[in-house]
Amino acid sequence: MNKHLELLDLSVADVLKRIPATVKFFINQHTDCVGCRLAHFCSMNDVVKTYELDEKKFMEELFKYDVQTILTRSMK
After folding, report:
1. Segment 51-62 mean pLDDT
2. What is the radius of gyration, based on Cα positions, of the chain?
3. What are the sequence ranges of the domains in the chain?
4. Is pLDDT above 50 for 75?
5. Which residues of the chain form beta strands (DSSP E)?
């Protein structure tokens, strides 16, 4: 499966837990994800749709935080 699509399926909570530096990413995207109780249920795709973000730009910024390593670790 395409890594881009796999990352969009990750929950916000997983991303924040595994790569704490992404707190800054979510704040910079002007989302309320950090500290949200629904973070365990929301996927990255939900964030893009809810906040009407440009998916391509969102993913480009997210990749700067090496989130693809989450996929590598989960495959081991």
Report:
1. 94
2. 11
3. 3-75
4. no
5. none
